[in-house]
Amino acid sequence: MNKLVIVLVFLTIFFASFIPVKDTDFGWHYRCGVELLQGNPCTTNTFSYHLANYRAYYPSFIFDAITAFTYDAVGFNGLSLFYALAITSVFYLIYLISGKKLITSALGYSLILYLSHGTLGLGWRPQIVTYGLFVFAYYFLSHRSFIGVTPKIGVTPFTIRLLTYPIFMFLWVNTHIGYFIGIVLFGLYGFDNLVRAVWKKISWKALGAILVVGIGSILATFINPYGWKVYIEIYRHMVAPMNTMIAEWVAPSPMNMGIIILFYLVTIALQIIHKKISVFQLLVITLLGTMALMANRNIPLFYTIALIQILPIIPTSKKNMTPLFLPFLIAIFVAIAIIQVRYTTAFNVSWDSYCTKGRTHYPCDILKEYPQLSGNIYTSYEYGGFMIWQKPDSKVFVDGRMSAWSNDSGEYAYQTYLKILQTQPGWNELLKAYDTDYLLIGQGTFLDLLLDEDAETYGWEKVYENDVHAVFKN
Fold first, then answer.
1. Cβ-count burial of 255 within 10 angstroms (0-12 exposed, 13-18 middle, 19+ buried)?
2. What is the pLDDT of residues 54-67, one digit of tens each?
3. Model pTM?
4. Within 240-350, where are the H helices?
């Protein structure tokens, strides 16, 4: 019966995570994956006419290839399946670290998925890869073979496992720009072991081995089509004012900040009381807590690692509660499986649902009703990836790749995009300078309202509109 409960819990997590793909960046990731599989990796900017000569160093090659191959083979349902497997794999790691406290782990992780819905609720996207890989790396470095046991130099389980970290970083760097946090994590692990060496809990030779592996892990991140330049992209994202341009990078609300601080203090307090805290754990939770306070996109990692640090402390009931939980688990599993599978599969196979019920209302009807749309198209930021996917022979002004891109004057692509959309001084001159052929914008925007009144004065003509979108031709 215990095995049945375990299976039911894992299947419930899996089916609850079987959700549609709603990330607006799907389109350009798919397009890059298609070109990569055809032997033309996206190492130059061929999708946008704004900053056409810009060189970005965003390494998502493995993710893009998997996305394109899976979508072409089985459609969105295949990508929803991959996402569900990724989330369930993270839960499996949480289950192991907790000491196999099944129900407590499941309830805690369900709460995390709810609190992190704004980031994790968009389905298959490269951020979920970094989320899963970070949790795996944390489990990998927190394992008893690494912490609390004095390692010896030589061919031992310690050295064999540790030497796989550079391989792990090679895969990570070619999957998502978030690879850098894996290097930072190993640095915190190295500092923890330096403290241990000072207190003679591990040998200095073992510390030397850790240092060598750390250097090897950094060098492994150079093995990608961009080489060492991927660190330039890290720097660009660090200095760009992302929190003023992209919603995910905005700091949490004051209430959510309070919850994050409370979680942090409770996590630290419980570990100190139970004498279960280490320098490594303290540094990691402090880093993630700081990151969570800075941007909403970092909240899932913080909550997940906080849960992982707390779960081993929670006492386990000696009573066998399986007979009590089984009827509820069966009911919950059946309800979630039926509702979620029906909803997601229906959404994934319905083009109308994808176009109108996702994160944004895509201009699918425009592409059908006005096929003349072509050339250089100024579109809403959220449509950029979609247009790259659906109109491969055209080019867009801005899309999700370009959040940290800037021109020679230091103005970011998103800022230029807003200057035009908000009809700030010089907006029309910018469009003309970039040889814009069409405008594809939402009804009711400043640009739409201005051109509705007097398009001819600015050299534009409205050629199509519906309740949501408007198209203007130069």
1. exposed
2. 999 999 999 999 99
3. 0.91
4. 254-273, 279-294, 299-310, 322-349
